Structure formats: C-alpha cells, structure tokens
Amino acid sequence: MPQAKPKKLSNRRSYYELTFTGFIFGGVAAFVLIAAVNSQTNVLFWALGVVTGALMLAAIVGNLLLKDLVIQRAVADHGVVGESLDVHYRLTNPKRWLPGCAIRITEARYVGSLDLTPDGYCLHLGPRQSTLVMAHLIPAKRGVIELREQRVSSSFPLGFITRALHVLRVQRIVVYPRIGFLSRQLLARSRTFASAGSMTSLRSEGSDEFFSLREYIPGDPMRSIHWKRSARTGQLVVRNMTSDSPPTIVVVVDLRFWATTPNGLELAEKAIELAAAWICRGLMDHFSVGLQIPGNPKLTPSMINSSRSQRQVLLESLARVDVAAIRPQTVSPNFEKQSKYAEYIIINLKGDDARFDMVPPGCAYTLLSMDDPNAADWVAFHPAKSNINPTPSAAEAPPVPAKAGAPPS
Fold first, then answer.
1. Torsion angle of alpha carbons 23, 29, 31, 32, nearest 10°?
2. Contact criterion met (CB below 8 Å) for 384 and 390
3. Which of 95, 377, 383, 407 measures 20 to 30 Å from 160, CA to CA?
4. Mean of the pLDDT values across residues 306-322?
5. Which residues, 6+ apart, have CB-to-CB distance to 232 below 8 Å?
6. Of the candidates 110, 117, 120, 118, which has an alpha carbon nearest to the alpha carbon of residue 143?
7. Torsion over CA of 397, 398, 402 and 403, rounded to 10 degrees?
8. 11-176 belongs to which homologous superfamily?
9. What is the number of H-type helices and E-type strands within the chain?
10. Domain covering 181-197+247-380 in this structure, CATH number
11. Mean pLDDT comparison of 70-74, 187-191, 192-196, 335-339, highest-scoring range
12. Is 48 helix (H, G, I), strand (E, B) or coil?
C-alpha cells in the first residue's frame, strides 16, 4: 500500500472576525429575515439578498486582499526598559492585479511585559509592491521578550468582517535595565573615578616606568641592569619596570540576602540599575570593567576589559539575572589575574549584610548599600519618552548635575 504523505506544517493560520459594525449589520439582517418570512414581501426578500450579498462580498474581498501577502519583521536584539524600540514590518504584495488596503499589523502573542505593543497600519499596498510599516514597542521590565506571532488584518471594504492572518515567527529581545547617570558625589567615593586617564599598574611586568630593584637572575637582559647600584653593592641588580594601563573596576551585585530584606525584590531591581550605570560610566571613561553576581546560578562573564562588546555582554548578564533564583551561598568567581589589581564596587541591599568574600586581599573597594538614606539620589534617569528616538544611554549623553543631598565624598 502506498504510504500517505505527511501533512505539511504551516506557520500561518487565518480566520474571520465579526466587527461591532458587523454585529449591528447582522442584527438588521436577522430582523429583515424575520419580517420577510412573516410578510412574504418581495421587497423584503430583495433587501435580505442585498444584506447577505454585502456580508459575502466583505468576506471574499478581505480574503483576496490578504492572500499570498508576505510579512517580515525587523527589530533590534536588545532594548532598554522604558525606552521606545523601533519595529519594522516589510509587507510585500506579490499579486498581479489586486492591491492590499487598510492593512493593520500587530503582535498577537508575546512573552514578557510591554508598556506599548507594536501596532502599524498600511493604507494601500499596490500589486507587486513592497512597503515598510514602522511601529514601536516599550519594554516594561528587564529580561527577555519573545515575539511569537504577527497578526495582519483588514476590514476592507465595508468594515463588517475582519479577515485576520497570523504568521508564526519567533524573535527574542533582551531588555537591559534602565541606564542612568551617576551623581558626582557618588563618583567621588570611588578611588578609581577620583582620577582620570591611565594609571600605573601595580604589577612589575612592563617597560614604561620604574617599579623596584631586585637581584639579577640569569637570563635577564643586560640593558635592565642598574650599573650604579651594582657597582656600589658589588652584586648585579636589575630594574623592575611597570607599564601604564587603564584603571580596572569590578562591579559586584550582591543580592544573596534579598529574601530576608524588606522589599527585597524592589531593592534588587534598583541595585541592578545602579550596577548598569557603573558599568556604562566605566566603559565610557575607557576603564576595564568586570562583573560579579555572587549566588547567581547562571554563568557570569569572567572577562574584564574595555572592548566595545563588553558593555553588551555585561548588560545582557544583568538583564538575565533571576533574583528569585539567587541563593545565599557564594559562587566562586573565575576571573583573570588582573582582577586582584582592580577596585571593587560592591552593591548590596543592606549595610548590615555586607560581605567581602569576593574581594581579593589588599584590593580597594567601595561599598554601596541600597538602604542608604541617599540612595535615591545616586542615579538620575531621563523621563520616559514614547517618540521614535530612544533616550540616550549613559555612554552617549553628557553627565547630569548631581542632586542636593547626595552622600559626601
């Protein structure tokens, strides 16, 4: 027996919807039907035929307008909480004669939280033509938004019946936490941000500046020998040199005690926003920046550098933090050796719960607790905007003057 061909899976489904005007029109049609049957009047039967024909015309034309329509979505792979994100829909009408009219496109199903759902409109799309429809979405929370289905609909020509077409196309958007501007008083509390430009490394490898003297070891280059000291002591002594390198900071977001802290989840979100501001400010000043999230079961990037991609990597890590999954035990960080020469910015929820087990011995650190009375003035945010252009990030906009009441240096 010949085997049955498997059914071809389709990522499209379509259906009809009756609009509010259509409900009213259907009620009138039902009234005309009852009157025509009771009175057997030819005029009423003629009117009933006109009403039924109008409904059939609306259904047929709506189906023909959306038939073979090609829909493509283009959206950035990341956004920021509260900032408008452009969504571009490209509609292509491959039909030879029939145009598309009054086409509305939106997202039918998505996973995540949005303050504004994409909603675009195309008045007319000629045969064998393409057009670009722009819409906007505004994320409400950090995390991952998953757009699943695009909904294309048209009520043309009479507005009685809506022909809807759903196209399955999954796309994920990583939503970063809000990015603000650090106050100058808060920056002054950091040893690294107190000075600008490059600073001398604490390591003895390099060739830029004098670091120390040590005994000669066979294999050391002859040019590194300090001849005056060697002649005075009678033993060969070489110069240890160091090199200039950009300052390094490691932002530590310690949320291990969120469950025992009043309003722990709310304070945790503010701590994550503060960490995002530190990361953006450090990279804007060409510092090497790293990130630690103790107790986080997900892998935290161990790289510490000032590359262009570092901002995206660290902010994406903050976006994916699941506060409810963080446990009090510490996850051992796996960082490069240079992390022990960095300054650690420790952000925790309560000053009484401060832990320094992630700071190497001898490293400078700055402790910032979210229960500080002045914590609300540490970061300033732009007011939310709903226009096309998103608000500037901390790495692109000029610093905002600090508010009164910020912590003293």
1. 160
2. no
3. 95
4. 90
5. none
6. 110
7. -60
8. Immunoglobulins (2.60.40.10)
9. 6, 20
10. 3.40.50
11. 70-74
12. helix
